[in-house]
């Protein structure tokens, strides 16, 4: 399938210099314990330690649901790891002051903008990330739907969910919102279609009011789809990773909003359901015929500015992001690599072919990823309250606007 046109452009990174000193580098992440990524982490450790005699690399996997709390505490006390894995967007840029600039290393990567604060690139992206809806073709056929024609408009999506509700066998969508992540994925999926470029820019700077018409449409639609029975009961008690996706892979839901890259994605779903049973489409939104793929920089590595070994840590980031290592991560996990020099021909699959076609069409940033951390945390809470009926759209949006203004003033 070759290199991803339009995304993977540039040149390979230079090899790291050899140092000979007894030193130790610590890397924090939430992935080094994943068996699917084991070859990648082993290759990084082997390559870096061979090029830097006397240096030991230690990968420390932190719990994903506590990761940024632990990291914030560590960085706030000028301690913590030498290198850290970050999501693109505000989870990276909000910590820019604590991170070493990597501008001189950033050429040849897609998604760098999502790891840039002002004129400072603070992490090198490893992957490209985004959201699509995956669907079970066998369940579509059983419900009397044409599995070769996924919904392209909001009315068509409503008809699909009405068909599954009438059948009564499985819910239309798997949903996990225990941590509020289901609300994140829904917001970004609809915002990609609804937001104008100006609104996307305002979202990125924290200037888009939550009381704006499109924000209201998203919140109202979130409530309405829940009330219409699109999701299984207990969504607020279901973890998105991986309970929601295991439900989908067991054939207990017809659709799920999943990732483009490395987990809860095409590769994992094809392995469980078979390539012939997995379909993919862009989530429609009410009131528009536009379909835009929500996509941004995925995950990337940053250097702790307080590290006593910051230069050495920057060399480690080069190895973590280098084409040879990124290729291993891509092939083993199904990630879409951000490095320009990674050959993606080994990632061939029917579903991936559709995704790459979508990437060549209209795209839009991941709206939730650019929220200030306090705003994101509040949306997690409000999205749960809206599903449970413990708040109204008016009250939820008013509270979100209050937190947005507080975040802007800080």
From TrEMBL:
Its main location: periplasm. Keywords: Signal. The lineage of its organism: Bacteria, Pseudomonadati, Pseudomonadota, Alphaproteobacteria, Rhodobacterales. One of its GO terms (cellular component) is periplasmic space. Belongs to the bacterial solute-binding protein 1 family. This is ABC transport system, sugar-binding protein. The keyword Signal applies. InterPro entries: Bact_solute-bd_prot1, SBP.
